[in-house]
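Box S2. Input/output pair 1.
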Amino acid sequence: MAALGVRRAAAAGLLRPQSLGLLRGLLTPPPLQQIPQAKSEHAKAEGSFQVTMLPGDGVGPELMHAVKEVFKAASVPVVFDEHHLSEVQNMASEEKLDEVIDSMKESKVALIGKIHTPMEYKGELASYDMRLRRKLDLFANVVHVKSLPGYQTRHNNLDLVIIREQTEGEYSALEHESVRGVIECLKIITRAKSQRIAKFAFDYATKKGRSKVTAVHKANIMKLGDGLFLQCCKEVAELYPKIQFDTMIIDNCCMQLVQNPYQFDVLVMPNLYGNIVDNLAAGLVGGAGVVPGESYSAEYAVFEMGARHPFAQAVGRNIANPTAMLLSATNMLRHLNLEFHSNLISDAVKKVIKGGKVRTADMGGYATSHDFTQAVIGALDA
């Protein structure tokens, strides 16, 4: 603990609130602006950051508790502004949604759990999760699928990134019954948003030193909709001659991910395909419990699990894996320029997993959520 205290004190002078923007360079199309610095008017201590927290449904609250415990042990200078938005717990309303938006306008950064969407139609097609992402214009979802050291899966040493446009496509909430027994569900693809996500993908590849971007589509069948998306990707690719560009049909992409995922680097795709591929790729490295994710707009950054599952059957059983949420939280800290604390916690998580003695059931172990969280806290001092 003494050594850790010295390191924290040494780092303290370097951790003043600075302008945000680890991914600022990725958000530079003409209509976009740089991500402003997170405000901290409501922070309890000078130099700390306010972050909006949405625990969500299922095991979300339990995972957020693990994050708060680890942050407390690591003395992370973050203050959470916690809100509850849930359609299944009758805690969803326009008023609560506006409260979350107001909080985000101040913090610019959020850590969220899965807000579960019921399948029953109750007069509103757009879920609160969808409406939140639209109001914040969280157009780019990024899931970094990377193997964890010491945890063996079918494919090891994987390192690929899935970038998904998540404000249009099949998830446009535009459905109607044209005649009795016939439902029309509209898929919206626009040039502006296709160009924006393509540019984001190529900027990301450039910023992160990656060599290839693959556009995933179904333009052989949806010739106009996916055809426009594909054309926009090709046009943007011409502006980045140093980045290799190729295309792949979505069904073949799923097969190739299972057979030979090493051929991929950065993949960019419309909404529904991204949702499916996120989950498929997460399964390659251990499942929903180990893959972090994040979503970006011109102003806001939201950090979440890469494969969004409420895992409702595990609620209250103390068996959920905190890894994905903890790694998402460390990505958030890096976004806030809190590099020391980000590395401290991510190193501790990876050290526990590599050790192999404390693993939750989804990773083949017998540890509880609490056991894993305490092991991570213990590894902070090592």
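Box S3. Input/output pair 2.
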Amino acid sequence: MLFLHIFRLFCVFQDVLRNILDLNESVIQNEEFVCCVSGGKLFPGSVPLAHRYGGHQFGYWAGQLGDGRAHLLGEYTNRKGERWEVQLKGSGKTPYSRSGDGRAVIRSSVREFLCSEAMHFLGVPTSRALSLVVSEEPVWRDPFYNGSVIKERGAVVLRLAKSWFRIGSLEILTRTGELDVLRTLLDFVIKEHFKSIATNDPDKYVVFFSRVLNETAHLIAHWMSVGFAHGVCNTDNFSLLSITFDYGPFGFMESYDPNFVPNTSDDEGRYSIGAQANVGLFNLQKLLEALKPLLTSDQLSQSLQILREYPQIYHQRFHELFKAKLGFLGNEEKDSYVIAFLLKVNISWIVFFSNCTIINSYSFFYFFYDIFNSQTVRS
């Protein structure tokens, strides 16, 4: 781990401090606490770990990756009985850093710090962020990938999630033929995080896949319903528990343009707004490939049928969320036409997606009146 010689605690989210970690606000004045959240000292009982995983990036197998700049500090069970895995990001080199320095800069750290909390309060399942520590030590980066290296300031985020396991956690084991470890890890994930699945159920892996598929469809529909688009939705950073984490490039829609790409490195538009649901399907296909060695032929057939249901599950959930924003009751066929129309209207989706919840009949009338009289419709 990294010892930051010159650092300061820049920001702390009090909701996480009080309601997840059961800590009083006065702790932020404690020098030892600041040292721990910066990576300079371990919390009592902590044995840091770095997670090994692989994954597909931009549609291609990238091999073994792993936590190159993150340290899992341990698990905390709070007074409500909730168990949270505590992790530092940007805290120095790990066995999986490869040629990297294990550091994070202010740009990416602020992005993760703010966005994870914004997503939480928008109701989207996500990791949480406790603290942001800023360092005076220089970190050298090429932010535009054009050969122009600049000096930036380092930063460390302490973040939390119920689990940091991802699809790539299973992929790497299948790819390397470590099937005993694959089974052990999968059984652990089911036992710890999918408690409604009976551990002695012979079809538990099929049930697990079905659960992940449904929750993935709901997650992507949910983040789309608040105007969010994930710019690096790869299998190496896509949660098995269907939460959003690893906030790389992302965007909140100013207007709905299916071709808008939130990641400037994505020249082919793989992670465009209009492709978010399809990327989720790709990730689930790779999850099923990782599970395949543990499935019988009948279980694989069942899982393939479940996979084919993903588009319907996604679209149904997306429409449910959209109709709730519009105050639509029941299930009318015309609802879909209204939603399709609204997705082509050039209005501020940041305002609409985030603030529109329930609209009564009168405000709904004036909402459409405003659209038709002062806005343009995309062809």
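Caption for Box S3: The two ends are 54 Å apart (CA to CA). The longest strand covers residues 128-141.
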